[in-house]
Design goal:
Strand order of the largest sheet: 1-4-7-2
Helix content: 40-55%
Distance between the termini: 28 Å
CATH topology of the largest domain: ADP-ribosylation fold
Shape: globular
Strand content: 5-15%
CATH class of the largest domain: Alpha Beta
Radius of gyration: 19 Å
CATH architecture of the largest domain: Alpha-Beta Barrel
Number of strands: 7
Number of helices: 9
Order of helices and strands: HHHHHHHEEEHEEEEH
Largest sheet: 4 strands, antiparallel
């Protein structure tokens, strides 16, 4: 399942998040409830319920929406959603703690801890860059961040969505051509914490990172490229992003 930013329910959730950022929680809650009413599949319902949970005024209602989101997430059985389980179970456990239900709190904390940080994604995987490389070359950590020139990255990043790698290539520093390489991780990898459970629950962009090198095994030459206007908007968003990069 590939995340679709043009999905109507997803667009409503983005509008709700914008209202949150502008300090309009009641407006945000109405938009998320509209998203819930318009949701027609498990993924849409999982996402809308996730946001509705954080706008509830009492613990029992918050718990109801968290458990609703979890129920739909369990039905999806997709790598893009699996990253949301630790957060969902932890938040559910906190609700049970607030309700003085120690047994259910303990059970849900244990469920949250049962999820390892090693994703089950089998790829194929891609890395976007402007560097001119060859099959067999290794991509390694230690490069300067594309988003903070003062930061040396401890990990090398990649994705299982080719268009996402294409966007990374377009935003990469340098004057070279945009290149999207097919890669194989040579060691363990984890969900990218800079995107997982941030704006959206789980890891919908299927973004990962590793301290081990990535081996180039091929190259993709056909992906959906951003328009100049879209790239301009992305660069503006990145320039205005004051969030700390988890390195």
């Amino acid at each position: 399942m590939e995340f679709n930013p043009h999905n109507n329910v997803i667009k409503l959730c983005v509008q709700g998040m914008d209202a949150e950022e502008k300090g309009k929680p009641e407006e945000a809650s109405k938009i998320f409830f509209q998203a819930w009413n318009e949701a027609t599949n498990h993924f849409e319902k999982f996402t809308a319920a996730y946001y509705l949970a954080r706008h509830q005024k009492n613990v029992r209602d918050k718990l109801k929406w968290l458990e609703t989101s979890l129920q739909f997430a369990l039905k999806i059985n997709d790598v893009t959603v699996n990253g949301a389980f630790p957060s969902l179970y932890s938040n559910i456990a906190k609700c049970y703690e607030d309700l003085s239900d120690a047994d259910n709190a303990k059970k849900n904390h244990e469920l949250a801890n049962s999820f390892t940080n090693n994703p089950s994604d089998n790829g194929p995987f891609y890395h976007g860059t402007r560097a001119d490389l060859q099959v067999g070359d290794l991509l390694t950590a230690g490069s300067t961040s594309n988003y903070n020139s003062n930061l040396t990255m401890n990990h090398i990043y990649f994705t299982a969505i080719v268009n996402g790698a294409g966007l990374a290539a377009a935003l990469a520093k340098g004057d070279g051509c945009e290149r999207v390489y097919i890669i194989e991780p040579t060691g363990s990898f984890e969900n990218d914490p800079n995107v997982t459970n941030k704006k959206f629950p789980g890891n919908p962009t299927r973004s990962y990172r590793s301290k081990a090198p990535l081996k180039i095994v091929g190259e993709v030459t056909d992906w959906v490229k951003q328009t100049p206007e879209q790239l301009k908007n992305w660069r503006e968003k990145l320039a205005n992003n004051k969030g700390e990069i988890i390195n």
